[in-house]
Design a protein that fits this description.
2 copies of one chain form a homodimer. The first copy, chain A, has 416 residues and is α/β, with parallel strands linked by helices. Chain A has 4 domains: 179 residues, MoaB/Mog-like domain (Molybdenum Cofactor Biosythetic Enzyme, Chain A, 3-Layer(aba) Sandwich); 58 residues, Molybdopterin biosynthesis moea protein, domain 2 (Alpha-Beta Complex); 89 residues, Beta Complex (Molybdopterin biosynthesis moeA protein, domain 3); 68 residues, Beta Barrel (Beta-clip). Helix content of chain A is 19%, strand content 30%. In chain A, the strands form 8 sheets. In chain A, strands 7-4-6-5-9-8 form a 6-stranded mixed β-sheet, with no helix packed on it.
């Protein structure tokens, strides 16, 4: 009956620290470039700088409702001793001025209108009075340049409108629209093939479970994390704990044009035997960069590169798998999509409600609830996904620390 | 020639503070409810709690590779004096156990397998040895409940899986998948009609501008902010500064089934005359809740309700319009979509590089660049959209403050 025994887990001979993995596992692959219209460009990553084809606003523009003047004509004006200027005409919004400002004269301009020739400033209407037909009383002097923006003050011709590698924010969409740029070359969303393994795992649509079966939770949650990192999840399906079957599915995901994976993510079976099958299948297809991370939860993580496509082997437990993917996978998805510095995540400062133990040289990721200023650690086996749904965020106990004391101030990375 | 003069802006008789507006302008409208599959449910807002149809994992489950035992049989076991248990069989992953654990016996179980009848704990393989065929040496005692999760330890039957009103995160998608919930009732994305006004404003696709024309930047940027707030932008187009034309377009946006607006946003013309036209048109169609906010930039903001549909009149300058929409509009979009507490935004603490002046009773929104620990205010006329694209985020000078001193610590809300 000795074939019934369970083998102890093999030591990970290529274990790494999390900081090693983040700094050292940097596949050079980048997605292809595609053009998208502005309306679909939010949060997309530009593949190249875009320069302004022309200056903006493109004409000297009034920023106030008032009167375009020669500034020198207003010097000395005051409430007690106003200056009188001849009203030479008015500028219409959106049209070229039909009048110029003569010495001693002024022209009415609404906010946003073109500054007429001859003028070098605009007096706000609040500092004027129209007491006599044909002339305007000015009660405050203005300096040259007051009340207007120069023709190239928003953007100079040839200036950088948007920077390659930085996801587009709403303001950038506005600036591109102002410059008449209707489409942007961006990196394609990285396609992330998600493969689940495990003899016990069945599709989430399974209505009734047989004894010992669990529905695939990890694939759905990973798809969400991939989307948040700017990627496109491709849920491949579930493979039994069998090296041949897994190798075939991996080869398919890596090679097939229909999947076209930029990254392959395998949530390994949870038993040690299943994990060994995954490592074996991956080793047959590429180079294992590390197997084993100094991370809790997440130790059995595998990082590899197979023919230029990075591959992440995640722990079998949903909670561990999601912790690892958020820490190691999401930055990789951003990078594959041409973004060097992922956008900031929401955080908050809080005080720990209790001590957190850790081991030096290992990163601990601790799920927490945040109540006011207090972060309350949530514990439980990493098999429990509900720990993650109850959490507001997580605290990192860094590699050098042997733990964190109760009441110490920590930064909580908040889920959103 | 007196018709050429510019009228001073009228005082806002219904001006409000920002905190009044956020607390008091709360239209009761909510979007309809629709069912979406799990794969499309990320960040959507559930319309009702979803309860677990069954317990999870649904069976007592081993969380380690090892041997299912009766805990009492292991009491007293040690390295020096191991306990010997008869190996009665093994449990296969994803299958019902075919053996039970008799007194003095054990059954091999991989991580994730069903705990067989008779057992109340699992000994990790690391604390066992298979020295003799048919029996297992146990070198550490276990307590009842060790090495396993109970059948309802992740989720009890009937427990709340997800909570109404809280946008779904990746972990919730996982938990729903685990529970076999394939679709969720969520609030429809609020449809936000975006109307631009201004005689000088032309479509962003306009290749060559005539003198005095500017392309519509605000609509594209607003569409981005609406999307970020979970809404669906409907860019209606540009209306000239004409009350009759604006009233017709507003009536259309409010009434037409094809637009079906849950919120109407008008970026008003920038001149005082154009702003008055907007207010006039809105007053004809509904009730103005406030006109004028104690906010810089953003003073000429208008908040109204027209037949149950909220309407925001934004300042004409793109930068001001976006500041106001982010502050007042985005929380409203979330609320219309059934979400009471918008997800957290990324922030960072930094020290101001210089003094910021403000007036008590007014909120100032100051764009900043963040370099390391220092927040450097970016100034410039609110007509300059480039101030916003150069900013990493903004600092709020709150209503009571008359300013903030250089070197004081501030919270920067980061754009992403």
């Amino acid at each position: 009956m000795s074939d019934l025994t369970i083998r102890p887990g093999r030591e990970f001979f290529t274990a790494r620290t999390v900081s090693d993995a983040l700094a050292g596992f940097r596949p050079t692959r980048r997605t292809t470039i595609e053009s998208v219209p502005l309306a679909a460009a939010l949060h997309r990553v530009p593949a190249a700088d875009v320069l302004a084809p022309e200056a903006l606003p493109g004409f000297p523009r009034s920023t106030v409702d008032g009167y375009a003047v020669r500034a020198a004509d207003t010097y000395g004006a005051s409430e007690g001793l106003p200056t009188y200027l001849d009203l030479a005409g008015a500028v219409r919004m959106g049209a070229a001025p039909t009048v110029t400002v003569p010495p001693g004269g002024c022209v009415a301009v609404p906010t946003g209108a073109v500054l007429p020739e001859g003028a070098d400033a605009v007096v706000m209407v609040e500092y004027t009075a129209a007491t006599m037909p044909g002339s305007i009383e000015v009660t405050r002097p203005v300096a040259p340049g007051a009340g207007l923006v120069r023709a190239d003050e928003d953007v100079a011709s040839g200036a950088t409108l948007i920077t390659a590698g930085r996801p587009l924010r709403s303001a950038e969409l506005g600036l591109l629209a102002a410059a008449g740029v209707g489409a942007v070359d961006v990196h394609a969303r990285p396609r992330v093939a998600i493969i689940s393994t495990g003899d016990e795992v069945v599709p989430s649509a399974t209505p009734v479970l047989a004894a010992g079966q669990v529905r695939d939770a990890t694939a759905s949650a990973l798809a969400g994390l991939v989307t948040e990192a700017g990627g496109e999840p491709v849920v491949v399906g579930i493979v039994p704990d069998d090296r041949v079957a897994l190798e075939r599915v991996l080869r398919d995901a890596l090679g097939s044009a229909s999947i076209g994976a930029d990254l392959v993510v395998v949530s390994a079976g949870s038993s040690v035997g299943a994990r060994d099958e995954t490592a074996g299948a991956v080793a047959a297809l590429g180079t294992i960069w590390c197997h084993g991370l100094a991370l809790k939860p997440g130790k059995p993580t595998l990082l590899a590169e197979c023919g230029g496509v990075p591959l992440i082997g995640l722990p079998g437990n949903p909670l561990s798998a999601l912790v690892v993917f958020r820490l190691v996978g999401a930055p990789l998805v951003w990078r594959l999509g041409g973004c060097a510095a992922p956008p900031p995540e929401p955080t908050t400062r809080a005080r720990l409600s209790r001590d957190l133990a850790s081991a030096a040289g290992r990163v601990d990721i601790v799920q927490v609830r945040v109540r006011g200023e207090v972060a309350e650690p949530l514990f439980g086996p990493s098999a429990l996904l509900s720990v993650l749904t109850r959490a507001d965020g997580y605290v990192v106990v860094p590699e050098p620390a042997t733990g964190l004391d109760a009441d110490s101030e920590v930064e909580v990375v908040l889920y959103r």
